[in-house]
Amino acid sequence: MVDVALQPNRSAAQAARKRSSLHRMLKRKSTVAFLMTLPLILLIATLVIYPAFYALHLATLNKSMERFVGLSNFEFLFRRETFWLVVKQSCIFAITAVIFKALLGFIIAHFVHNIPAKGQRKWRGMLLVPWVIPPAMSTLAWLWLFDPSYSAFNYTLSFFDIGPIPWTGDPMWARFSVILVNIWVGAPFFMIMYLAALKSVPEQLYEAAAIDGANWWQRIWYVTLPMMRNIIAITTLFSLIVTFANFDIVRILTAGGPLDHTHIFATWAFRIGIEGSDIPLGASVSLFMVPILAVAAIFILRDVNKRGNES
Amino acid sequence: MTTVTVDKATPTRKVKYGSMSRDRTWALRWSYFFLVIFAIFSLTPPIYMLITSLKSSAEISAATNPWWVFHPTLENYVGLLTSNQFLRFFWNSAIVSIFVVTITMLISVPAAFALARMRFWGSAVLATGVFLTYLIPETLLFIPLFKMFAVIGDWTGIQLINRWYVLLILYPTLTVPFCTWIMIGYFASIPKELDEAAIIDGASWIQTLTRIFIPVAFPGIIAATIFAFTVSWAQFLYPLVFTTSTDQLVMPVGIITSLIKGDVFNWGQIMTGALLGAAPPLIIYAFLMDYYIAGLTAGATKG
């Protein structure tokens, strides 16, 4: 043991007593527990909490990071039109994508739940593939599907006399494409969560509802949705955070273009902070994600705790 | 409305009336019909990757039917798998992922055990903190982290930026909170009698963890491992920001920066690279689907 090696002159009995007391201390539950969580605490403190506050500090510096400039980075942002464009686009992007992901996930989960249990595994397996592929890789496939001159979609649509559609060239279509890819990636997650929730709704409730003469819509509205409310809330809020902070899809598909019309906070912060080497301004941009993330996080925490107490 | 027909018979499946069972058949048919549509939507991009990867560049630029391969060739695969650069990306990705998975499990399993079983001062707050950390996206932290590592490089001379091993420090911030969180759930579901019996038999806390909790919660450990691997394999932002030299890049960034040269897109090779990059998570998913889904749903539902 370490303490013995450090004190070779002490008498053996003393050493033994000392060792046993240290030993006891080390064996104490709280000490062991603390040592077990220490790496986790260090990791969170140095690589999550510290950088978060460091970002606040960085946001108050000038471009060369030598001088304290207070809030002038924020003032500068507020005066820029692009900033408000980014705010608007981030909100449109996150809200539209989350709504459609939730709707689509709900519908698909119902269909999967509807078919015989034997085949469900196979369908679930196929429908979850978009979630499994790394988003950076699958977005490349979408980029190729949207290619201006060789687009496979436009090729197909040309048989119906539609198009050619400028998938990533026109601001509106580019926004549509970015949201579409996001829905494609994210809907399977909702599907899996809702499917798990649907399976946990007791069959008796539907039987009781059927006896009371509830129609299809009433059964969903008065039985399914209330039973799934918590899981719907958690999943939606969680997805809102992830979607709002999305980077991969927008970066690869449009890189913010055409003319900044698809930039969202993360991609714009990257453009300014890393590509444009204006770290303080980039940090200020990314800090604007904090309020909405914090609100969503508080609600998630409340729901998760509520769930914990129920069980 | 189509959806109305679909779900009409769902809840009454136990009732065996003649008309009901006919409704049920129709509901099934509609379900399958829509599932096929959704499956096509889901699988179009990966299948299109595969189609394009089998085409030669001549066939791609000839703009024939994009959904069909007229002259299948493996030249893209041969080209990539014999290129040292691409193999380097693959190797870097594999090394980073394996190390990150190991680091993650070494940190999160003991921590989860302590948080789930050994109440100590602040343990409840810490558990909540872990969950909150999981909600902090990487897009919020990459700029301060970049500056932090640059400053560390200036002060100590330890060069971290543009070295692949910087990712070993960064990725655990994404994987550890979630893995700890789902392991807390799995550990908490183990009956208290088990570890009490072990303690009475004279086992230390460490022994209780390694001899009892880890074997019993093994499915959870597999789910957490899969999650850590997929996240570190798929991560795009951190390598894009922190590594730039071609020999330090990992797969996703490597494919995008090296195969896209200016405005020249070599689509055959890009799609082949994307498919090879998507292969490891897909293979794991194909074999361990149930663990994958268990991990996915455990995150929000809490065990």
From TrEMBL, chain A:
InterPro entries: MetI-like, MetI-like_sf. It is found in: Cell membrane. CDD domains: TM_PBP2. The chain crosses the membrane at residues 32-56, 92-113, 125-145, 173-196, 231-253, 279-301. Signal peptide: none annotated. Belongs to the binding-protein-dependent transport system permease family. This is ABC transporter permease. It comes from Bradyrhizobium retamae.
UniProtKB/TrEMBL annotation, chain B:
Its main location: membrane. Signal peptide: none annotated. PROSITE patterns: ABC_TM1. Residues 90-288 form the ABC transmembrane type-1 domain. Keywords: Cell membrane, Membrane, Transmembrane, Transmembrane helix, Transport. GO terms for cellular component: plasma membrane. It is a multi-pass membrane protein. Pfam families: BPD_transp_1. InterPro entries: BP-dep_ABC_trans_perm, MetI-like, MetI-like_sf. It is found in: Cell membrane. GO terms for biological process: transmembrane transport. PANTHER family: INNER MEMBRANE ABC TRANSPORTER PERMEASE PROTEIN YCJP (PTHR32243:SF18), MALTOSE TRANSPORT SYSTEM PERMEASE-RELATED (PTHR32243). This is ABC transporter permease. It comes from Bradyrhizobium retamae.
